[in-house]
Task: inverse folding
């Protein structure tokens, strides 16, 4: 049976906004009623594509009483102000990851949602990738890897080399710890959801910012421990070819997940014998299914009037890790 559609407004319609609009429509759970963007050409184009109203101001969009929820897909420094405004206007909010670029404003977002009794969800989509659940349930929980010693994460892309001068991503104050805030936040959320919380007091980091012209850091290496004692190393590079890896090292075996290529390898300790990694079939991720799962969870949390998963507090914890890494690098 078709579920009744929820009327939604979208702020920020291009780039990630275009992706999100397509997922909202594909889910068949939302009716996009109104849109707002400072880019008038993009706004006009999106309004035609979605058969929705193009609003000239954010206030006009929020003043539409028909609209029950808002999807915010604007640059990170705008998340807090726009989210708080939308919540105060009585709307539920799905805001892009990360929650914000500073802890104080993120706490205000969460407090406002609580006070207004509205759902606030941050779109950390990676944890919805079925491969991570598969690895946890089939390799970690079954003890196939033995005692987990360490996790190693690499997230690399060359997007930093293509940033136009003056773009928000190149300004350190707006984008602290750059690639760790924008990209690493996905994996920090997934890691903490499935494998253990990062102990903030253990975070150390090194950052370099002399590769691109912008003032934001280009490359980051972080080391820390999880609350359960597992060692973590995490590298985030914004100036190299695309490569994303999630490796778990245990006393019986290791697992290597190259998640951009959907390759999963299992390597057992053979104590003197060859230890050749073998390929393991990994659950597919058809047509961005994890992103559809995000909007479905937002819909269900609103309808059931319950805390969404991820909870906003989870998103705040991710931000705390990023800010702790930023402070650790600066204090050296
Ligand atoms: N989940 C993912 O995989 C993923 C991928 C990329 C980006 N993101 C997130 O999406 C968000 C947007 O990133 P982006 O790269 O699309 O950003 P962007 O700079 O391309 O801007 C996105 C849209 O917001 C609009 N915009 C800018 N200022 C605005 C304002 N004041 N009011 C209304 N609209 C405004 C822009 O015109 C544009 O249409 C960020 O939070 C980013 O972290 C998520």
Result:
């Amino acid at each position: 049976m078709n579920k009744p559609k929820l009327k939604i407004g979208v702020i920020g319609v291009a780039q990630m906004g275009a992706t999100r609009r397509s997922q909202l429509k594909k889910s068949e759970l939302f009716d996009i009623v109104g849109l707002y963007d400072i880019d008038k050409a993009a706004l006009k184009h999106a309004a035609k594509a979605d058969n929705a109203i193009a609003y000239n101001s954010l206030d006009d969009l929020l003043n539409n009483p028909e609209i029950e929820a808002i999807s915010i897909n604007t640059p990170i420094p705008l998340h807090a102000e726009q989210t708080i405004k939308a919540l105060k206007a009585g709307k539920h909010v799905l805001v892009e990851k990360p929650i914000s670029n500073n802890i104080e404003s993120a706490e205000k977002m969460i407090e406002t949602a609580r006070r207004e009794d509205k759902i606030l969800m941050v779109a950390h989509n990676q944890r919805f990738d079925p491969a991570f659940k598969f690895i946890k349930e089939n390799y970690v929980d079954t003890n196939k890897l033995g005692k987990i010693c360490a996790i190693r994460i690499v997230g690399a892309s060359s997007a930093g080399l293509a940033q136009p001068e003056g773009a928000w991503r190149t300004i350190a104050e707006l984008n602290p710890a750059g690639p760790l805030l924008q990209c690493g936040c996905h994996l920090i959320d997934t890691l903490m959801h499935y494998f253990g919380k990062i102990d903030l007091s253990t975070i150390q980091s090194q950052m370099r910012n002399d590769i691109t012209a912008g003032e934001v850091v280009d490359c980051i290496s972080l080391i820390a421990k999880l609350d359960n004692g597992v060692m973590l190393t995490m590298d985030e590079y914004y100036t190299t070819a695309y490569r994303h890896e999630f490796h778990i090292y245990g006393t019986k075996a290791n697992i290597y997940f190259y998640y951009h290529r959907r390759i999963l390898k299992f390597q057992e300790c053979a104590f003197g014998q060859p230890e050749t990694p073998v390929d393991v079939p990994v659950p597919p991720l058809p047509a961005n299914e994890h992103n559809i799962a995000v909007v479905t969870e937002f819909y269900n949390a609103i309808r059931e009037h319950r805390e969404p998963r991820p909870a906003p507090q989870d998103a705040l914890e991710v931000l705390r890790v990023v800010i702790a890494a930023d402070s650790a690098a600066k204090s050296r």
About this structure: Residues 11-17, 36-39, 42, 73-76, 78, 96-97, 123, 125, 182 surround nicotinamide-adenine-dinucleotide (CB under 6 Å). The CA atoms of residues 205 and 329 lie 5 Å apart. The longest helix spans residues 312-330.
